[in-house]
Write a sequence for this structure.
C-alpha cells in the first residue's frame, strides 16, 4: 500500500510551491514594470492558478515574466538542498512534481512563451528531453524510497 | 446506397489525410500513446508484469481520450457553425459522412494499437499474443463506440460550457483511478469502489483480458447512445 501521509504532505508542499511559482510571476511582472491585471485560479482546461498581466511591451519582458515563476521554484529547491531537506521523500516528491510540471511541453509557461511552438521539431526535442528528465527524476525517487524504506 | 458507401470512403480518406497532416492530431493519435508507454515502461518496467499492466492501460486511455475528444466536440462545432445543416441539405445521407469520420478513428486507433504492441514487443521484450492483439482491436471498437457516445452526450449537454472543459472534468478523474498506470488494489477501498463503477476502468479491465467487462462496455454504449440521441434532438429542436 502507498504511504498516504507522504502523499498528503507532498500535496501540501506542492501547493506551497505552486503559490511560490505564481509569486515568482508576480515578482517578475513587478520587476519588469508590467501591470498585473488579475491573480486567480481556474478549473479549465485543467485546474490551475494564474497571474494575468497587461500586454508585454517587448519580448524580453515576456520571457522574464514566464521564466520568473519556474526560476523562483528552482531557487527555493536549491535552498531546501542547502539545508539538507530536499531528499526527504515528501519534499522530493513535491519538488520533483512541480519541476516536471513547470518544464512540461504540453501545458506550461514554455508553451505560452514562444509563439507557434507546439509540435515543431524544437518542441519534439523539448518533449524528448522532458521525458528523459522525468525518467531520471522518477528513478531517483525510487532510489530514495528504497534507501529510506518509505513506501 | 453505393453513393453513401462511396461518400463514406471518400470521407475516410479525407479525414485520414487531415489527421496525418494536422500536427496536433498526429501527435495525440500516434505519438503520444507510444511516448506514454516508453516513459512509464522506462521508469517502472523492469518487471515484466508491470508492462503487461501498462500496455492495456495506455491503449485504454488512448481509445477513451480519442473517442471522447474527437467525436462529440467536432459534431457540436459542426452543429454550431452550420456545417451540419449544410451536410443535411446534400443528397447523400449525413450518416455516410460521419461513417467515414468514425472509420478514420477506428483505423488510426488500430494503427496506434499495432505500433504500441510493436514497441512493447521489440523495445521492452514484452510477450504479445494473438489473443491480446484481437482483444485490443475489439477494445478499439467497443471502447470507441461507448466513449464516443459519452463524448457526444457531454458535448451537447450544456450550451454555455465548452465541450472540452466538460470532457476534461469527466476524463481526468477517471484517468487517475482507472488502473491504467498502477493496479487499482493500491488505492484506498472507497476509491476502488468508485473506480469499478467508471467506464474507463471497465475498458482497461476488458483490455487486460477480463471479458466480463466487455458486456458492461456494451451497456455504457447503449445507454449513452440513447442519451446522446435524446440530448442531440433536444438541442436541434431548441435551435
Amino acid at each position: 500500500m502507498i504511504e498516504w501521509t507522504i502523499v498528503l504532505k507532498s500535496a501540501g508542499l506542492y501547493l506551497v510551491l505552486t503559490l511560490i511559482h505564481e509569486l515568482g510571476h508576480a515578482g517578475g511582472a513587478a520587476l519588469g514594470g508590467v501591470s498585473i491585471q488579475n491573480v486567480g485560479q481556474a478549473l479549465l482546461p485543467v485546474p490551475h492558478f494564474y497571474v494575468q498581466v497587461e500586454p508585454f511591451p517587448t519580448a524580453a519582458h515576456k520571457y522574464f515574466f514566464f521564466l520568473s515563476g519556474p526560476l523562483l521554484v528552482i531557487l527555493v529547491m536549491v535552498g531546501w538542498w542547502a539545508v539538507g531537506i530536499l531528499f526527504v521523500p515528501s519534499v522530493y516528491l513535491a519538488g520533483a512534481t512541480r519541476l516536471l510540471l513547470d518544464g512540461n511541453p504540453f501545458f506550461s509557461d514554455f508553451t505560452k512563451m514562444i509563439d507557434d511552438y507546439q509540435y515543431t521539431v524544437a518542441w519534439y526535442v523539448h518533449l524528448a528531453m522532458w521525458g528523459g528528465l522525468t525518467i531520471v527524476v522518477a528513478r531517483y525517487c525510487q532510489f530514495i524510497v528504497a534507501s529510506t524504506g518509505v513506501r | 446506397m453505393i453513393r453513401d458507401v462511396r461518400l463514406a470512403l471518400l470521407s475516410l480518406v479525407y479525414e485520414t489525410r487531415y489527421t496525418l497532416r494536422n500536427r496536433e492530431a498526429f501527435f495525440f493519435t500516434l505519438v503520444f500513446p507510444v511516448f506514454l508507454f516508453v516513459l512509464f515502461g522506462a521508469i517502472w518496467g523492469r518487471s515484466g508484469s508491470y508492462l503487461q499492466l501498462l500496455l492495456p492501460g495506455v491503449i485504454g486511455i488512448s481509445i477513451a481520450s480519442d473517442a471522447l475528444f474527437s467525436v462529440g466536440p467536432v459534431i457540436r462545432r459542426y452543429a454550431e457553425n452550420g456545417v451540419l445543416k449544410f451536410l443535411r441539405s446534400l443528397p447523400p445521407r449525413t450518416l455516410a459522412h460521419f461513417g467515414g469520420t468514425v472509420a478514420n478513428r477506428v483505423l488510426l486507433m488500430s494503427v496506434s494499437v499495432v505500433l504500441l504492441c510493436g514497441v512493447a514487443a521489440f523495445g521492452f521484450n514484452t510477450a504479445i499474443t494473438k489473443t491480446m492483439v484481437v482483444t485490443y482491436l475489439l477494445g478499439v471498437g467497443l471502447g470507441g463506440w461507448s466513449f464516443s457516445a459519452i463524448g457526444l452526450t457531454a458535448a451537447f449537454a450544456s450550451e454555455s460550457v465548452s465541450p472540452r472543459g466538460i470532457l476534461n472534468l469527466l476524463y481526468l478523474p477517471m484517468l487517475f483511478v482507472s488502473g491504467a498506470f498502477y493496479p487499482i488494489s493500491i488505492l484506498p477501498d472507497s476509491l476502488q469502489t468508485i473506480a469499478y463503477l467508471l467506464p474507463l476502468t471497465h475498458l482497461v479491465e476488458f483490455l487486460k483480458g477480463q471479458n466480463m467487462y466487455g458486456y458492461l462496455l456494451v451497456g455504457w454504449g447503449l445507454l449513452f447512445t440513447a442519451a446522446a440521441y435524446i440530448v442531440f434532438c433536444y438541442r436541434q429542436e431548441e435551435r
Q: What stands out?
A: Residues 4-148 of chain A form one domain. Chain A has one domain: 4-148.
